[in-house]
Amino acid sequence: MQDKHSLWGGRFNEKADSRFNDFNSSFRFDYRLFEADIEASKAYAEALAGAGIFSQEECEKVCLALEDIKKNGIPPEAINSRDFEDVHTFIESSLVSLVGDLGKKLHTGRSRNDQVATAFRLWIISACDEIIALVKVLCLRLTESAERNFDVILPGYTHLQRAQPILWSHWCLAYFEMLARDRSRFLLCRQSATVLPLGSGALAGTSASINRNQLALNLGFTKPSANSLDAVSDRDFALDFTYAASALQVHLSRLAEDLILYSSQEFGFVLLSDKFSSGSSLMPQKKNPDALELIRGKSGRIFGNHFSLLAMLKALPLAYNKDLQEDKEAVFDTFDTICGCLEMASLMIETIELDQNRCLDAAQKGYLNATELADYLVRRGIPFRSAHEIAGRAVLRAIEMQVELNELSIEDLRKIEPIIDPDVYDSLKITSTLATKSVIGGTAPEMVKQALIKAKNDLNSW
Ligand code: ARG
Predict the structure, then answer these.
(1) How far is the CA of 189 from the centre of ligand 1 (A)?
(2) Were 215 and a residue from 47, 126, 266, 362 both cysteine, which residue would form a disulfide, CB within 3.0 to 4.6 Å?
(3) Does 380 score more than 60 pLDDT?
(4) Which atom of ligand 1 is nearest to the CA of 120?
(5) What is the pLDDT of residue 361?
(6) β-strands 195-196, 223-224: how paired?
């Protein structure tokens, strides 16, 4: 007893209940594997021809029909109809309606288990490529912003308390570094996805004598999988994907959070473009950083998708189980979400304006040069711990007098530590504070300039 488009039925006496069909079907989301599955099917047809199961002519006929199916796309009503269990069922029944029994022959030695693993891997490979391209755009925007605002100085924070001045360009390049690591993670994920499951059959390997090495090469994989049981049940590549996306999302959420803070009136460092902010339905004065908040807020679903894959895979007995059908929505949603966040983050970095004076003002208030005073004393031969203590007392004195360190008179400073000379004021200047951080990776302008050149060179080679 077989439903019209069903791939099985011989051993059944009754038709499937429509409620079961609805529950079982994945077509409404796995239609996204359409092109990948067609590519894999064409390559499989050639492999069957190589094995003498298809004649060359039959193979060509099947491949042309598959091309036709691809060209015509999936009619929207087919996705919503309950006729097809999944995208593989749809493609096979379209093929049979075009070439008849030849279409039925394509499944020789193939199972949907190795078929879906193959199509999913192909899909993830191109998803990695798309994400890597979007990461590059964001990195480009960061280097442009670093260049445009190279000299802007703002406070750097620890514990969200003003700590030491930094260059805006240094802030930009911090995110560049994170994103460069994210890029590497997606490259690794891409690599882990390029092992070919096709030819593993349902679980034990195919009985069709196909050349799997050739098939792997034809589909752009590096090699065929080494164990059929593993191949049909392995979703490590999907985990790599949702993990890489989670790490990337951590970075995007931190960037978003920094900009949310910096654009608040309390900080006032950054002005958001009207084009990417929203107002309040009640409070006329409001300009809200919705885009940034959404980037931050979407972290939950990206981390959640990673966890849902882990939970789905945990303790799953070998080999294929229908649980594995639950892998796709997590991955698709992660892809859509992370692409949206990357695009929006790039637009935000491109369109924000800095309030250079507010930034500088904040960097000059709150004793961000106290470490410099300690370092000055160290240069005068005082051990750092004692210098730290003396500089702390100077800060306390300045707080009492409601002035900054450089506004203390030389007499006041000498009361705290007689070794201090008027040249201390040079050291307390914000430009000196920055210039002293001239170590590799430091925020001294000359170092940041070099880092920016390196970042731009890296980008050229990506
Ligand atoms: N739609 C299924 C999935 O995504 C395809 C594999 C079905 N295999 C099976 N033995 N029922 O996992």
Answers:
(1) 23
(2) 47
(3) yes
(4) 4
(5) 98
(6) parallel
- Nearest-CA residue for atom 12 of ligand 1: 325
Long-range Cβ contact pairs of 394-399 (< 8 A, separation 24 or more) = 394/370, 395/367, 395/370, 398/367
Ligand 1 contact via 320 beta carbon (within 6 Å): yes
- The residue whose CA has the least distance to atom 11 of ligand 1 is 322
pLDDT in tens, 192-245: 999 999 999 999 999 999 999 999 999 999 999 999 999 999 999 999 999 999
Residue of the nearest CA to atom 10 in ligand 1? 113
Mind listing the pLDDT tens digit for each residue in 404-460? 999 999 999 999 999 999 999 999 999 999 999 999 999 999 999 999 999 999 999
Distance from Cα 339 to the centre of ligand 1, integer Å: 27
> Computed over its alpha carbons, how large is the radius of gyration of the chain?
31
Q: Kindly report whether the peptide bond that precedes residue 319 is cis, defined as omega within 30 degrees of 0.
A: yes
Is 30 a pocket residue for ligand 1 (Cβ < 6 Å)? Answer: yes
Question: How confident is the model over 173-197, as pLDDT tens digits?
Answer: 999 999 999 999 999 999 999 999 9
Cβ 26 under 6 angstroms from ligand 1: yes
Q: Is 270 helix (H, G, I), strand (E, B) or coil?
A: strand
Return the DSSP state at 323.
Answer: G
Catalytic residue set: 159, 280
What pLDDT is stored for residue 279 in this prediction? 87
Q: Which long-range contacts (CB under 8 A, 24 or more apart) does 254-260 make?
A: 254/178, 255/175, 255/295, 255/345, 256/292, 256/293, 256/295, 256/296, 256/345, 256/348, 257/292, 257/296, 258/171, 259/289, 259/292, 259/348, 259/352, 260/289, 260/292, 260/293, 260/296
Is residue 324 lining ligand 1, measured as CB closer than 6 Å?
A: yes
End-to-end alpha-carbon separation of the chain, Å? 55
pLDDT category of residue 2 using cuts at 50, 70 and 90: low
Name the nearest CA neighbour of 182 among 120, 139, 122, 124: 139
Question: How many H helices and E strands in the chain?
Answer: 22, 6
Is this structure's pTM higher than 0.85?
yes
